[in-house]
Amino acid sequence: MASSNAATISKIASVAASAMLVRSIVNDFLPPHFHHFLLSRFCNIFSRFSSRLSMVVEEYNEFAVNRLYEAAEVYLSTRISPSNTRLKVGKQDREKGFLVTMDRGEEIVDVFDGFKITWRFVRTETEKRVPNSHGGSSMKENRYFELSFDKIHRDKVLSSYFPHILDRAKAIKDENTPVKIFTLSERYRFGDPNGLWSSVVLDHPSTFETLAMEESQKAAIMKDLKKFMERKQLYRKVGKAWKRGYLLYGPPGTGKSSLIGAMANFLNFDIYDLELTDVRRNSDLRNLLMATSNRSMLVIEDIDCTKELKNREGSGDQAVVPSRWGEFGDKEVTLSGFLNFIDGLWSSCGDERVIVFTTNHKEKLDPALLRPGRMDMHIHMGYCSFSGFRIMASNYLGIHDHPLFVHVKDIMQKLQITPAEIGEVFMRSELDNPTVALQGVIDALQGKEKEKEEEKEKEKEKKEDDEPVEVKESA
């Protein structure tokens, strides 16, 4: 028995020594790309007897970047565990945070729908001939992910797991990409059809939490935006373009631009700021809108200032928007063309689009613009309420209550004052002393109240002066 065990151990030791010798020969005398060849051949032999299936996701498909590879890199960055000991860290200009991914040889185990998938990052180098007179060569780096799982889950990986990775990676990228604001580029202004939009990062601080609006109104807007984002399949089911139109109307200084910033930050959508009077003709408007990206907001501010898009009674659909291009605006932008781009066939060329119009005078707009499908939700931006003032006091002074709030509330019930006016008073105040700052608001409100009374007196006197004087004839 002892001799049999000794013989077995001797054979194992001999095989191990032979394996070490072969490994030493391979590492010392064979080129790196041949290592990969031998490894793949051994893997093929053993895979025939294994219940596991392996798939390779290469960085490139021929000459094009493999979208699944990019998505896997982003997705796996959220699956890194404490057991990973070697990581890569990078950052791109457009990204908000850092991208942390696994380095060569690292493995990540993911769980999807109850089964495990093991990912491994592989990086190899192969010799690439350089076509020149010297017959030189260079090393080409190949990068890919190798995932393995039980063979019985093959169909589920292809039909469900990979689409899940693509969707999650898209959502992660959308969250980490900063919002940009686009405007018509100088190249367009000089007649160049390429590069229609130019952009900068929009670092707008406005959020729904900081907006001086009624809480119920903010909740209604956020609920509507969430429903819009969640109903992609519903829009397709009922045959509608996946877009939503909003009209913000009210006096100047009531926070329309701040609400646009809050909506863009809430959705993480880029903003395309379009001034219609800068557009030469209908065909240019079509090209501009076609050049906007998905997940974006088209903003057309002060639409009431474009007189031909007000009430077009008696003018028909061929009313035109006056162009700044003078004699070069031969066709210009017609109302019918504009409506077709926001609600006609061309409006379907893109997904996740939000269109925002602003106006100070809703009553001046053409009814054709106001109907659902063009301006779906009408949002009134009124004067500052006391609840809005409390939000502003929290933003500027960091307080939620104060004895002087009672005096502010009493005066605000008699006055119409905009959030912009109150914000300017706060900016001129000593913000580190809430009592002094609030007293400054009270003084400003009282001054406004006094101005209002003086205006009433002047109007009364003017009315009395304009009344005809009755002259009685003498007997």
From TrEMBL:
<dbReference type="InterPro" id="IPR003960">
    <property type="entry name" value="ATPase_AAA_CS"/>
</dbReference>
<dbReference type="InterPro" id="IPR050747">
    <property type="entry name" value="Mitochondrial_chaperone_BCS1"/>
</dbReference>
<feature type="compositionally biased region" description="Basic and acidic residues">
    <location>
        <begin position="446"/>
        <end position="475"/>
    </location>
</feature>
<dbReference type="InterPro" id="IPR003959">
    <property type="entry name" value="ATPase_AAA_core"/>
</dbReference>
<comment type="similarity">
    <text>Belongs to the AAA ATPase family. BCS1 subfamily.</text>
</comment>
<dbReference type="GO" id="GO:0005524">
    <property type="term" value="F:ATP binding"/>
</dbReference>
<keyword id="KW-0067">ATP-binding</keyword>
<keyword id="KW-0460">Magnesium</keyword>
<dbReference type="Pfam" id="PF25568">
    <property type="entry name" value="AAA_lid_At3g28540"/>
</dbReference>
<dbReference type="InterPro" id="IPR027417">
    <property type="entry name" value="P-loop_NTPase"/>
</dbReference>
<dbReference type="GO" id="GO:0006950">
    <property type="term" value="P:response to stress"/>
</dbReference>
<feature type="region of interest" description="Disordered">
    <location>
        <begin position="444"/>
        <end position="475"/>
    </location>
</feature>
<dbReference type="Pfam" id="PF14363">
    <property type="entry name" value="AAA_assoc"/>
</dbReference>
<dbReference type="InterPro" id="IPR058017">
    <property type="entry name" value="At3g28540-like_C"/>
</dbReference>
<dbReference type="InterPro" id="IPR003593">
    <property type="entry name" value="AAA+_ATPase"/>
</dbReference>
<protein>
    <recommendedName>
        <fullName>AAA+ ATPase domain-containing protein</fullName>
    </recommendedName>
</protein>
<dbReference type="InterPro" id="IPR025753">
    <property type="entry name" value="AAA_N_dom"/>
</dbReference>
<keyword id="KW-0547">Nucleotide-binding</keyword>
<feature type="domain" description="AAA+ ATPase">
    <location>
        <begin position="242"/>
        <end position="385"/>
    </location>
</feature>
<dbReference type="Pfam" id="PF00004">
    <property type="entry name" value="AAA"/>
</dbReference>
<dbReference type="GO" id="GO:0016887">
    <property type="term" value="F:ATP hydrolysis activity"/>
</dbReference>
